[in-house]
User: Which sequence fits this backbone?
């Protein structure tokens, strides 16, 4: 239980920062930074039991590395932020 609380605390602290990094990077069209932030967020989502088909974090990471897929990022990121907001709400209770 203690380990679980530690992971939840880390997620609640780090995920909002990583999401903010993704937002800033998107505004600046800094796709390598989007990729790095998504890569950093991926294991945390996994620890929280968030499935890839829900978060699309791997797809975000891959899309940020391929200019042909940049236009798919806003919708994928919006979905990720919505999913994380729900997770934050549930985990804070």
Assistant:
């Amino acid at each position: 239980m203690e380990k679980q609380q530690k992971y939840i605390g880390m997620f609640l602290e780090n995920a909002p920062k990583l999401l903010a990094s993704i937002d800033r990077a998107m505004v600046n069209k800094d796709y390598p930074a989007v990729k790095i932030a998504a890569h950093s967020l991926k294991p945390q989502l996994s620890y929280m039991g968030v499935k890839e088909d829900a978060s699309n974090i791997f797809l975000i990471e891959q899309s940020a590395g391929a200019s042909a897929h940049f236009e798919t990022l806003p919708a994928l990121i919006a979905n990720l932020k919505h999913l994380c907001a729900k997770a934050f709400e549930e985990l804070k209770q």
Q: What stands out?
A: The mean pLDDT is 95. The first helix runs from residue 2 to 27.
